[in-house]
Design a protein that fits this description.
This protein is an all-alpha fold and 55 residues long. The protein is built from 2 helices and no strands.
Length: 55
Amino acid sequence: MEGTGYRKKCSIRAGAEAMVSELVRGHGIRKSRHRNEVRTQLQLIFSAIACNVKR
């Protein structure tokens, strides 16, 4: 029923969901600190860098 392709896709999705969860819970990504789009993008980039450095 469940093929190897399905399991691989689920494992990739699980990794992505874990990253999003860490960004939302640990770095406050759900709500931006800035109204400016460029600053919001910088906040996301720096949060992703911090998340990768921690790993």
